[in-house]
Amino acid sequence: MQRRLCATILLLEMIVLGLTTPVLVSVNHVGTGPALGIGLGLAGACLVVSGLLRFRWAYVLGWAIQVAALALGIEVGVMVLLGIVFLALWATAYLLGARIERERAAWEAAAAQQEERR
């Protein structure tokens, strides 16, 4: 469950980060090359990391993406707000997903134990 929730957040964040590219170029007058590197680079990182969440270390990369999204607020002011929103969503998905998995494992163990008694 944790993996699905976190992957969903990263894929939604991928769209938002990809859309920062034209904002960087047209509004903030960042060069096309750096804007593509920043916007599409972060969007690509979201896509790659969402596929790697089967590994525990990929969650660390997910946290790093959240920090990078917040840091993007230096160039695009509204990204501070969006970075905070996605950080909150990521933290919720990470923590709630882990809790659901623990509770599901406990429930399945109790059900298996009850089945053995029969």
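That was protein one. Protein two is written in the same sequence-then-structure order:
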Amino acid sequence: MFIGIGAGGLMLAMPLESGTAGAMEAGFYPRLVCALIIALGCLTALAGLLRKGELPEAWHWWPLLMVSASAVVFAALLDIAGFAITLFAVALIASLAGRLLNIWRAAMLAGVLVLMNIALFIFALGLPLRIWPRI
């Protein structure tokens, strides 16, 4: 997805066509899942706003920031650093959201996650992802 400025003003374009329910194309399922996630998020937020009860003490910004940062790092590093280094960095950053793991346990967990994801996505599913960066 990209945003561009054209003759009609600001445009949002998806490179995949969605098609119809009878003749689905490559963009149909991602758009459907996106719409369902947005709808469930809105329903959850509305249910939380309408529920009576005690208010939370404070917002916990650090976990939200770390999980969001890990998604941004994944998008930024995947083409540059390769699959293995990107996943390792994402797992380490996401582990900073909580206080359950020290840095060594987080690194061990990240290593196991990298190996499992490489086995699944590259070898089992055959996705054309580079494991390591180009040198």
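Helices lie at 28-50, 61-95, 103-124. Keep this in mind for the problem set.
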